[in-house]
Design a protein that fits this description.
Elements (H helix, E strand, L loop, with lengths): L12 H20 L7 H21 L8 H19 L10 H24 L5 H24 L9 H15 L11 H18 L5 H28 L12
Amino acid sequence: MDSQGQPQPAISPTAIDLLWGGALTAALAAGLAPLVSADWRFFTLAAVLFGGIALAVITRWPVNRDFGWANRATLLRGSLVVVLVAAAPFADQLGGWLWGYLTLALVALILDGVDGKLARLTNSHSDFGARFDMELDALFILGLCVATLAAGKAGAWVVALGLMRYLFMATAWGLPWLGRPLPDSFRRKTICVWQIVTLMVALLPPIPDSFASGALATALVLLAWSFSLDIRWLYQRRHTHEPSHLHP
């Protein structure tokens, strides 16, 4: 019963969404596992990643509030991203199935624009939804970096593309002004998409390793430039008092 004497549902609406999200993730993982000859490490990583998503949703979204179609679209993308990231260390085993891996990555990229449109159509924007989408972008990029490294298309330095934001977040714990809000930026969003597209193109079997490395190096320079602009902007306003918010 709630405070007004109304019976509570046996399972919260959010839990139902997490259940279908978990089931979809398990089905995708089961379908992809034979292609990469993956062992328990693949399934463990997928379970840990989806568990992290579920924990974030449970702790940051009101239990009895409808999850909304925009967040459901993000959760759908999350299932794809989780499986793609879990399979990334085994990218060298994909062979001809690398095209299928990249097709799933393309679907995940397309879905990145769907949740925002749904949020506008249903007037359901939320700080949680924006952060949910942002964290999936970061995880997706890191996974593609690992896949690129595993496939031998670039050296270990390519992982810097995926780690730069996490380094920024870690630094913000010691320098709180780095965690303050940033204005919306077309430049920041464009470079994010550019990273994903460049990583996907680099993974294409016909693309020479030299071309892939050059394109990825350019993406890394652009990302470093973008972060430098945001760090400078935040530094100039470090004495203002605003709530903490990590870099998109």
